[in-house]
Amino acid sequence: MAVRELRYLGDPVLTTPADPVTHFDHRLQALVDDLMETVLLPGRAGLAAPQIGVGLRVFSYNVGGLQGYVVNPEIVSLSEETQQGPEGCLSVPDLWFPTRRAAEATVKGVDAKNKPISVTGTKELARCLQHETDHLNGMLYLDRLDPDQRKEAMRQARDSQWFWQGDSPAR
């Protein structure tokens, strides 16, 4: 197990839909272990595999004392009731914007041994399940903001130290 380095806004892995997991082997277990260890650091609620540079459909969560992961997750239920609140992202550090999400969400997938699992959450866990599933679909929470908020978020991101990747700007 290892705490893995994060990828930041501008890295193409964050906007590319992740591939379904098809091999349930020791490499998948190592990825799950790394996701779990990395999400357990203070201030973290969820972590999708693309955020550590792996384009596979896996995420981990750590919300309100509930910890776990889901392989090949799909959102199967969202409540009609919504919640509006500040949302942030490890791949977009230090930026928080009000984001509307369903108040309750259910995700179904499998574990590392390909056994079915389901996770239902309300409040922050619901937000996390939706946020991490978005990551696996190549979407950031910034994509859910209204145009003016998104423009402001992108301005702030471009002005940050973490925005630049590699030898060229991540634009």
Automatic annotation (TrEMBL):
Active site per database record: 132
GO MF term list: peptide deformylase activity
Cofactor: Fe(2+)
InterPro entries recorded: Peptide_deformylase (IPR023635), Peptide_deformylase_sf (IPR036821)
Reaction(s) this enzyme catalyzes, per UniProt: N-terminal N-formyl-L-methionyl-[peptide] + H2O = N-terminal L-methionyl-[peptide] + formate
EC number(s) recorded for this UniProt protein: 3.5.1.88
Entry-linked Pfam families: Pep_deformylase
Hydrolase listed as a keyword: yes
Residues binding Fe cation: 89, 131, 135
Keyword tags: Hydrolase, Iron, Metal-binding, Protein biosynthesis
Bound cofactor: record note: Binds 1 Fe(2+) ion.
Family: Belongs to the polypeptide deformylase family.
UniProt xrefs under HAMAP family: Pep_deformylase (MF_00163)
Summary of the function given for this chain in its UniProt record: Removes the formyl group from the N-terminal Met of newly synthesized proteins. Requires at least a dipeptide for an efficient rate of reaction. N-terminal L-methionine is a prerequisite for activity but the enzyme has broad specificity at other positions.
Name this protein carries in UniProt: Peptide deformylase
Organism the protein comes from: Kibdelosporangium banguiense
